[in-house]
Amino acid sequence: MQWLNTILQGILLGGLYAMFAAGLSLIFGVMRLVNIAHGDLIVLAAYIALVTVQALGVNPLVALIIVVPAMAGIGYALQRGLLNRTLGDDLLPPLLVTFGLSVIIQNGLLELFTADSVKLNAGAIEIASIQLGGGLAVGTLPLLQFGLAVAVIGGLQWLFYRTALGRAFRATSDDQSVAQLMGLNNAHIFGLAMAISLAVVAVAGVLLAVRANFDPSIGPARLIFGFEAVIIGGLGSLWGTLVGGIILGVAQAIGAQLDPGWNLLAGHLAFLLVLALKPEGLFPKVQG
Amino acid sequence: MTVRVEHSNPSSRVGVVIVAVAFVLLAAAPWWAERASLRLLAEIYAYVALASLWNLLAGYAGLVSVGQQAYVGLGAYLLFALAMLAGIHPLVAIPIAGFTAAVISIPVAALMFRLRGHYFAIGSWVMAEVFRLLASQVSALDGGSGTSLPAAVVLSIASSRQMREFVIYWIALAQAVAILGAIVWLLRSRYGLALTAIRDNELGARSNGIDVARIKYVVYVAVAFGTAMVGALIFLQKIRISPDTAFSVNDWTAFVIFITVIGGIGRIEGPIVGTVVFFLLRQTLADLGAIYLLILGAVAIVVMLKAPKGIWGLIADRFGWQVFPLERRLVMGDR
Amino acid sequence: MPEPLLEVRGLDAHYGDFRALFGVSLDAAHGQIVAVIGANGAGKSTLLKSIAGMMRARRDSVLFAGEPIGDLAAHAVVARGIALVPEGRRLFPSLTVEENLLIGGRLGRPGPWDLKRVYELFPILAERRNQPAPSLSGGQQQMVAIGRALMSNPRLLLCDEISLGLAPIIIRDIYARIPAIVAEGLSLVIVEQDIVQALKIASHIYCLQEGRVALSGEAGALTREKISAAYFGV
Domain B11-326: which CATH class? Predict the structure, then answer.
């Protein structure tokens, strides 16, 4: 029963990882950009939520109304002002510029908010739980978070395959120069893709901040979790990232159950195992 | 009439003389420099070595790793394990640590090379995290809290403190020179031509029949070997080790990348110029703490966008300089 | 002489150090079909790419409806009413046939062309509307590429080697639809290696040779000898 509980917690945690992964996967799909600052942007979203909650005295989940558009705006500006200049045939500029960005965000947050860890309080919902019978219980908040993750990924799936914007994303991903002939301004399309990626990051950042303590240094680990979920799930598949996130979450939960020191290690080993046995991921769609 | 390949040009002939004079002066530093300067110089040598190795990996072979701290930490931990648990003399343990790390890097590379281009970067970071977490599980070396080299091991380097510092200084200098020399030798060999081709146009190199995958493999393992030896020496000098310092992404990857980018990626002189700039900035801005790193990151971004060949690239393009005789020119004439 | 819709004036183009066009000038009037012919590497595709904004040119070296557009990006050029059917078709492989057409019409310029009209022009496409673009035959893919360009309701359509790699019967089939396209009131500049096909359909011919206009004139006034002299540079 304890194991069943562990696995259940892992699955719910996996929803959060899937959200880390979805934003990463989206921009890679559209513009072949791997954003090393992705994790630090998640932490930035958490701090924006912190400031919002402190300034307005609202529930963190209500703060999403401000954090999501704020992050989307930052994403669009970042893409058009900086990242579009790095795109091209050469791998180095985007990697190094986003790596520099990661260091800048991390140390900027450190300067503004110190290294002390903080947490957002979502109120009574945090301790509420639903009894599933047989001693099995799930917290209302983790369940809500998981539901939100599924909704976000479902929404991205719909956007990508059912809307004109999604069509534009896929066309640009296929052939940038011909997409321009369709009247698509690549610089703008890439800006929108980054805006959506960071809107997802905003939701993930707020959920992260409600779930556990955070401080400016935890970004890179979130990047790694998101990345592992993408690779486990298979490049370019949105539902794959959900499965990848769940596998990662369950592996970590089982590892932690065995020995607290094995929490992260078990997740990494699950990733390496998939890489060794099925390097294209469990649900491959496009080749990177 | 014969045709031969000439590597040097007038500037590189001057360059080689300058390098030789500098080497003699630096080797004599224990007689003219004070203790603090010696430590600083040794640290500079370590960064020249690390940055040159990363430059070979990313700038030439196109393997943009952000996880080279894996091999710094691995080399350091191997040194501590060999010295403390196996009783091997620490100076002998350095090359053994390098060799062992190279052996370990073979299966690691096999796994990492399954990730294409961009994703290789983050994959290499995951690997460094795995190494760090494993190191903190080694209870014989006090796991997560870290450990120090016992006095007996430290004394085995040299009995007097002064002599120990001299010995470590000379080894650090010799190591940096050896690594630079090995890279120059590699780039002048037939591998060098292939590596330069890969740097300039990987697709083109592949279609010209260069076995790109094999060359990348060789470079990855060779760089792991060098990086681990540098890491072993760094922590032999520090005497204390912990997983967080040995596998620090800031110290062993962020700084190294910024040094290489600012100095000039894909050129052998770049990391040297970058290290000098890095230490000048550090000596003047170190009091700023987090702001210092923030500035460094911003400078690296600006350099990457505005002058992607770095400071040395600007100088070399402008004046046609090269310090190391690497260029290949066909010379017609009797000889 | 009707008023020119497109005026190319002394257009130069470069690929790095290589100069591909040397002061090319060309006119296309309303409702006119202009053919650009020439050997491989003469600069025909470069000319179309420069007009369409895929390569930037000097601002006043391309005039469209009297306005300079030489320095506009491709997405701004198509918004003004110039569409390009690129060499090799270049459909979006991860989009279906209908999605390829819809993305061509995403700017919503007013005009006669919509999904229904394109399907009337190429009925086979209506049957294949939900198939992925790469699953179509070469000729059908070329129809999608033409339809995709028409969906933007251009005033000027640029066609780059639409017969390339297609069987003669399919080429004839596609060329047979061109009068119906022109009847909707747009002008056409086609690049074609198939001189016979080009002469049959165009009212004006420009022959490019090594980046320069070697010969131009009304299709009827040009003799076979003159054309082959210009074509082969004899």
Answer: mainly alpha
